[in-house]
Amino acid sequence: MTTHTMLPIFFLLLTSLISQSIACNVVDKEALLQFKNQITSDPSKLLNTWTPSSDCCKGWNGITCDSTTGRVISLTLSGTVDDADLPLDTFLSGTLSPYLGNLTNLKILSLVNLKQLNGPIPKEFNKLSNLEKLYLNDNNFSGSLPFEIGSLISLSELVLSGNKFSGRIPSSIRNLKLLTSLDLHKNDFRSGVPEIIGDLKNLRNIDLSDNKIDGIIPESIGNLKQLVTLDMMKNKIKGYVPVSIGGLDSLTFCRISENLLTGILPSEIGNLKNLKSLNLGNNMLNGNLPASIGNLSSLVELYLANNQFSGKIPPTLENLKNLQRVDFSSNRLKGRIPKSMAKMSVSSFLGNRNLCGSPLLPCKRF
Ligand SMILES: *[C@@H]1O[C@H](CO)[C@@H](O)[C@H](O)[C@H]1NC(C)=O
Ligand SMILES: *[C@@H]1O[C@H](CO)[C@@H](O)[C@H](O)[C@H]1NC(C)=O
Ligand SMILES: *[C@@H]1O[C@H](CO)[C@@H](O)[C@H](O)[C@H]1NC(C)=O
């Protein structure tokens, strides 16, 4: 064939390909309409485009389909809030339909900041084995995480913060081998940090802050070589800072403040070469500060206020060239502070009256 005869055929093929883009899968469409059915209030009409007579892959707000299969791959709806974090008129009330479990090709399920979505995560979510991102943050969901959450084997990001989830973190999360981010902050989770957390070797971010988690931090946490941020602030965590913490090679942010930690700060903490921010304030830690803190060459912030640390500040802390903010207040530390800290402004260095060395607190009386 010559180019002249091929050209029209080419265009014919192209137009048929475009017009042919597969219609929405019927099971997926039914699942979405069932979801809409359980929404009791939608003042800003987020779901107005979702009508039985239209194709869910064409013009339905928040829906993305795979163009070759017509399967829904993303359901994304979010609310907006004002400066005081109160919902503007963009919110949804209602519960999650078990039919959502029929969206078996879904990769992203993001229903965030809609404030008044409530009830539990349906156990039918176990069918979402292709789901990579589950964001349900800033709603009013409750109940415990279903054991079936362990079936979401493709999940890399699980963000459930800002809800009223309760109960324990199910051990079935050990199956979520691809998980990089576990964000459960601001809920009512109880019981301990599960031992199996150490199995989730791809974790880069753990945020369990602002819950009611008690028990100890398991030694297994030291296996998480990719972990960059660890936030367990404001819980009821007891026991020691695990010696294994020194194994968290990638850690840059560590906040376990406002808990019930006891015992000493293990010298292994000094292995954390990438650590920029360490906050262990408001616990019951005691003993001397380990000299190895001076090895934390990336450290910018060191908050150890409201503990029972005693003795002198190790002179090795003079090595911390990047340190900008320090809080040692309400401890039993005494003696001379390193010269580098003496140069910090009054607001950047908080000590107590038994620490001296700055122009304001000369060491004469010691
Ligand atoms: C869709 O979900 C409902 C509720 O879980 C279930 O009863 C039904 O069998 C599912 N349909 C398909 C085709 O999977
Ligand atoms: C959230 O749910 C609780 C019941 O669990 C209810 O009392 C409360 O009014 C709800 N809050 C909002 C903002 O919908
Ligand atoms: C860490 O600090 C301690 C005490 O200051 C020191 O003996 C040790 O050699 C340091 N280790 C490394 C790897 O720098």
Automatic annotation (TrEMBL):
<dbReference type="InterPro" id="IPR001611">
    <property type="entry name" value="Leu-rich_rpt"/>
</dbReference>
<keyword id="KW-0611">Plant defense</keyword>
<dbReference type="Pfam" id="PF08263">
    <property type="entry name" value="LRRNT_2"/>
</dbReference>
<dbReference type="InterPro" id="IPR051848">
    <property type="entry name" value="PGIP"/>
</dbReference>
<dbReference type="GO" id="GO:0016020">
    <property type="term" value="C:membrane"/>
</dbReference>
<keyword id="KW-0732">Signal</keyword>
<comment type="similarity">
    <text>Belongs to the polygalacturonase-inhibiting protein family.</text>
</comment>
<feature type="domain" description="Leucine-rich repeat-containing N-terminal plant-type">
    <location>
        <begin position="28"/>
        <end position="66"/>
    </location>
</feature>
<dbReference type="Pfam" id="PF13855">
    <property type="entry name" value="LRR_8"/>
</dbReference>
<keyword id="KW-0964">Secreted</keyword>
<keyword id="KW-0325">Glycoprotein</keyword>
<dbReference type="InterPro" id="IPR013210">
    <property type="entry name" value="LRR_N_plant-typ"/>
</dbReference>
<dbReference type="Pfam" id="PF23598">
    <property type="entry name" value="LRR_14"/>
</dbReference>
<dbReference type="InterPro" id="IPR003591">
    <property type="entry name" value="Leu-rich_rpt_typical-subtyp"/>
</dbReference>
<keyword id="KW-0433">Leucine-rich repeat</keyword>
<keyword id="KW-0812">Transmembrane</keyword>
<comment type="similarity">
    <text>Belongs to the RLP family.</text>
</comment>
<keyword id="KW-1015">Disulfide bond</keyword>
<dbReference type="InterPro" id="IPR055414">
    <property type="entry name" value="LRR_R13L4/SHOC2-like"/>
</dbReference>
<protein>
    <submittedName>
        <fullName>Uncharacterized protein</fullName>
    </submittedName>
</protein>
<keyword id="KW-0134">Cell wall</keyword>
<feature type="signal peptide">
    <location>
        <begin position="1"/>
        <end position="23"/>
    </location>
</feature>
<keyword id="KW-0677">Repeat</keyword>
<keyword id="KW-0472">Membrane</keyword>
<dbReference type="GO" id="GO:0006952">
    <property type="term" value="P:defense response"/>
</dbReference>
<feature type="domain" description="Disease resistance R13L4/SHOC-2-like LRR">
    <location>
        <begin position="99"/>
        <end position="208"/>
    </location>
</feature>
<dbReference type="InterPro" id="IPR032675">
    <property type="entry name" value="LRR_dom_sf"/>
</dbReference>
<dbReference type="Pfam" id="PF00560">
    <property type="entry name" value="LRR_1"/>
</dbReference>
<keyword id="KW-1133">Transmembrane helix</keyword>
